[in-house]
Design a protein that fits this description.
little secondary structure
């Protein structure tokens, strides 16, 4: 019985894809692109910011 990391058809998010083919988004704070991460697999649709720093900076008042 093989226990390898076989690829499943219909993989969700970036699983089973090379890094160049993983989904990406643009951070609204720093305007940099960021890619799908395994820890975001279940919440990728809700991910907005690339990092905690950008998330916290978005809450600072302008000026």
């Amino acid at each position: 019985m093989a226990r390898g990391r076989g690829q499943r058809s219909g993989a969700v998010g970036g699983r089973g894809r090379p890094p160049s083919e993983r989904p990406s988004k643009i951070c609204p704070v720093c305007q940099r692109p960021f890619q799908w991460r395994k820890k975001w697999a279940s919440v990728w649709e809700q991910v907005i910011y690339c990092s905690d720093r950008c998330r916290l900076d978005s809450k600072k008042p302008a000026g």
